[in-house]
User: Fold this.
Amino acid sequence: MPPVTPQTPLGLFGTDSLIGEEDRAIRDTVRRYVEDKVKPRLADWYEAGTVPARELARELGSLGVLGMHLTGYGCAGTSATAYGLACMELEAGDSGLRSLVSVQGSLAMFAIWKYGSEEQKQQWLPAMAAGEAIGCFGLTEPDFGSNPAGMRTRAVRDGSDWVLNGNKMWITNGSVSDVAVVWAQTDERVRGFVVPTDTPGFSAPEIKKKMSLRASVTSELVLEDVRLPESAVLPGAAGLSGPLSCLNEARYGIVFGSLGAARDCLQTAVDYARQREIFDKPLAAYQLSQAKLADMSLELGKGMLLALHLARLKDEGSLRPEQVSLGKLNNVREAIAIARECRTLLGAAGITLEYPIMRHANNLESVLTYEGTSEVHQLVIGQALTGEAAFR
Assistant:
């Protein structure tokens, strides 16, 4: 048979034909930035367990991806499709890079943009869009992850002020943030507070010795008699619907982002298999190798088609939370399976930082459980199908 020109896994599906020219241009700009500026440094950051978050924030701000899907206040106002594609390219670099952008734009900025006062928006959003100010989102607690309604952080009125006490855990960007959006129980309902991180009583010790998301800042938030004025309250949010809507924004980014990690693993495995010779012919020429690559490409392509469909729904304003759960559950589940299978094709080389596969696989272990565990998303989908809540 004559030689066949190799295609990329997503090239088989022709998914570029489903993406508009402007959205493709944004995607390609982010891809070039990740390839040129970030990927050459990632192995060192991951091995050292550190990342130049402020430098990256300024670069990402200049690129226009921080809060890119929001409008006004220095935000780019792109389509949801463009935002998803940017997340895919960022996570093709590293899940930690996409997490920085997701937490900044879809959690901290989105909370202020959607629920904040005009004063809060003017104070924080332009600086955050430019990467000059970094934000974090304080919802998860040491004992309350999947059950945020049980949070123990409390805000109590004291005259015209509020006083906050409590702890938040596993907070991306925490120790490098200038502002934290913190959710707390009050005598009425859960409320959100915009907390400058230089407020007395606020601290954010960084969490060390991680085996996943090592090129990302993860922290605890400690609030000890943090006194805030009434103007710190997010006026548009009361109850858990506020923080949960923010989480849906971030989960949407994961639907695309996880595919970026999977794509990077799969393309690495294809390239390696074509070059690696074993028993006098390329590893790629063996039937078992091709079967693995074909099956992984199939799951990657199906995940991409699902992501683009959800993006269309979001751009139309009709995307529902349970549909975001479909995307997050499927695409992260398949991404981590692809990363693990790709590792087998690289053999021992696959466990080193010379290649990105083990780094992606370790990161995806965190992506699998943050922004809602797989089990929680199964129950969200189950409730949508049956009308019965089975969370307890």
Notes: The mean pLDDT is 94. The longest helix spans residues 241-275. The chain has three domains: 9-129, 135-232, 241-386.
